Amino acid sequence: MSFATDAMPLYRGMDAATLDREYNARASVPSYAVEAAAYVRESARVQQELPGFETVVYDERSGEKLDLYDVAPGRPVFLWVHGGYWRGGSRHDNAFAAGGLTQHGVSVAVMDYTLAPAVGIAEIVRQVRAAVVWLARHGAERGLDVSRIHVGGSSAGGHLTGMLVAEGWTREAGLPDGIIGAALALSGLHDLEPLQHMHVNEWMRFSPEDIAQCSPERWIPRGSRTQLIASAGGLETSEFQRQTVDFAQRWKDAGNAVALIDMPRHNHFDIARSLCEPDGALVGAVLRAIKASRGA
């Protein structure tokens, strides 16, 4: 009789200790407290620079809200989905995502979702999709161009961005095919399988159905009109980098447009914060994809 041990290979030849190390984002930086404080500081700055943002309930079932920044007639809208391993973060400390794009005439929505373990991954995915549905149905009332909706997120938010470009759900929600224009997936967890073997599962409690239904790499459409923009920081662990590169390659192999952006000097946290920079690489990539989608 054999017994499972922490040293047994569980995923791609890695044991539990290796998986914990590879997927421990906080331990990958010298000080998580410094990174978290920068999120709060930059978000406060953006909110001061963009006063008068509107807060709306986008999902009546959960009561969850999003903030709309710099709304003006004819502007495209970009929805930002925060990270935090599905159990942390909020729209308040992710307002930084509106800093760069609004300087180029893009309205930005920054959303909350109910955090684990209060709900599971399937409900979080439902809520994020509900935010897209709300923008599609109510954005035009505010003058926004919602012929295409642009989305993005980092880490857990990168995973949820992957679920927004997944096959089939928009049709089931009554939205037009191809409504998602640009999709920025940063350090996304596109295969949930390894997470069941490590500390993340203490609060996520992934079931086999969760892994099958909510791993974006298993739901890549063919011939999508969405352009994927994928990136992971050069200072991140090898698994965060690999998941990003693998998802981008699968997206391309399915006949879809993809841009893989090199961010060699960024870590797991400041890569997202670079959306504060109007002339930053990620802002530029999103703007190019939005422009291309409006001409498609």
Tell me what you see in this structure:
There is one protein chain. With 296 residues, the protein is of the alpha/beta class. It has one domain: 3-Layer(aba) Sandwich (Rossmann fold). It has ten helices and eight strands. It has helices at 16-22, 32-49, 121-138, 156-164, 169-172, 201-204, 208-213, 238-253, 270-273, 281-294; strands spanning 54-59, 64-69, 76-81, 107-111, 145-154, 180-186, 227-231, 258-260. Strands 1-2-4-3-5-6-7-8 form an eight-stranded mixed β-sheet, sandwiched between helices. Strand 1 and strand 2 (64-69) form a beta hairpin. The relative contact order is 0.15.
The rough form would be described as globular
Number of helices: 10
Structural class by secondary-structure content:
alpha/beta
Query: For this structure, what is the CATH homologous superfamily?
Result: Alpha/Beta hydrolase fold, catalytic domain
By CATH, the topology is Rossmann fold
Overall CATH architecture: 3-Layer(aba) Sandwich
Number of beta strands: 8
Radius of gyration, in Å, reads 18 Å
Low-confidence stretches: none
Topology order in helix (H) and strand (E) letters: HHEEEEHEHHEHHEHEHH
Provide mean pLDDT, rounded: 96
Q: How would you concisely characterize the structure shown here?
A:
Helices cover 34% and strands 16% of the residues. The chain has 296 residues and is an alpha/beta fold. The chain has one domain: Rossmann fold (3-Layer(aba) Sandwich), CATH 3.40.50.
List the helices and strands and how they pair.
Layout: H1 16-22, H2 32-49, E1 54-59, E2 64-69, E3 76-81, E4 107-111, H3 121-138, E5 145-154, H4 156-164, H5 169-172, E6 180-186, H6 201-204, H7 208-213, E7 227-231, H8 238-253, E8 258-260, H9 270-273, H10 281-294
Parallel strand pairs: 3-4, 3-5, 5-6, 6-7, 7-8
Antiparallel strand pairs: 1-2, 2-4
